[in-house]
Amino acid sequence: MAVSLQEIRKPIAAELEAFELQFRDAMKSKVPLLDAVMRYIVKSKGKQVRPMFVFLAAKICGPVAPVTYRGAALIELLHTATLVHDDVVDDSFERRGFFSINALWKNKIAVLVGDYLLSKGLLLSLDNDDFNMLKIVSRAVKEMSEGELLQIEKARKLDIREEIYFEVIRQKTASLISSACACGAASAGADEALTARMRLFGEKVGIAFQIKDDLLDFSSDDIGKPRGIDIQEKKMTLPIIYVLQNGSASEKREIINTIKNHNTDSKRVASLIALVRERGGITYATQKMQEFQAEALLILHEFPENESRTAMEQLVRFTTERKK
N or C: which end of the chain has fewer CB atoms below 10 A? Predict the structure, then answer.
């Protein structure tokens, strides 16, 4: 039976509640326009899964300290900044069922808000001499930018190979989750070797998380239709890459033609989804996701067993077995 997110949060419920109050306070600004945007961001925030990784990683390795809260805030500020900027890059007007910042306040303000959030995180670390946290997260910022640019470069020609795909998602998605885990471990006093293991654990989880995201695009929505949003946005996901690498020449031409020229044609998109299913793309991607999940859990089981390690394992399963 699947465990709910509420259940998983129990070992860190008090920490998350205190963090929530601190984070709301950190988002306040004396500039009225900025304060209005910050209040909107707080109202429309997601499940805060990344701070959960920070606090659980800390409690697996030792006691939660004030620096743990700052590490969680730094991760969440960076994550929020990247989402705001991503919506500008992708020209997206909706995020988690809410209008995006660029939809309500236009691109210029959205870009500046993203910059502001990032600077808030950097100053939070610098003001408290949290140089280790800053180093961990700065690496993630660099990798996320590189991953996004590599994806854009490859998407133009639709020539992305599987090894490039994994490099893109390692940088774009997994780097932030791995940084959250590393921040948590380091904040609780873990040495460099243990922090590195926790970082690698987070990386494996992040890759599995992104493959799951790919697979959700091929699952049915509320009215029973495959979503196909990634195809409409010309994103090369693992199920499609598998078929491109293993399909016939005519199938490859059909896939590339649909993605390039007919990505908004619902019939063509549905036909492509059916082809990917038929040629084993879904099965292959599911298998790869499960492999990364298993590798992550093997690393996690190197740490002493406690309530937080159990919750972390449940969180890994939640992120890779979710329905949306």
Answer: N
CA–CA separation, 284 and 299 (whole Å): 23
CB 84 within 8 A of CB 142: no
What are the tens digits of pLDDT across the range 218-250?
876 543 445 667 777 777 889 989 988 887 888
Per the CB < 8 A criterion, the answer to whether 129 and 122 are in contact is: no
CA distances from 301 to 46, 49, 196, 305 (A): 28, 20, 15, 7
- What CATH superfamily is the domain 5-321? Farnesyl Diphosphate Synthase (1.10.600.10)
Q: Look at strands 94-95 and 98-99 and give their pairing.
A: antiparallel
Nearest to 304 by CA among 211, 188, 220, 138: 188
Q: Identify the three-state secondary structure at position 174.
A: helix
Instruction: Note the pLDDT of residue 184.
Output: 94
In whole angstroms, how far apart are CA 267 and each of 7, 220, 236, 274? 41, 15, 19, 11
User: In which residue are the tokens 């619902």 written?
Assistant: 266
Q: At 264, which amino acid appears?
A: T
pTM summary value: 0.88
pLDDT, one tens digit per residue, over 247-261 is 788 888 888 888 887
Closest CA to 290 of 181, 232, 217, 209: 209
In this structure, how many other beta carbons lie within 10 angstroms of the beta carbon of residue 185? Answer: 30
The single-letter code of the amino acid at 241 is I
Structure tokens at 117: 């959030």
3-class secondary structure, 99 = strand
Mapped onto helix, strand or coil, the DSSP state of residue 226 is strand
**Rounded to whole angstroms, how far apart are CA atoms 54 and 231?**
33
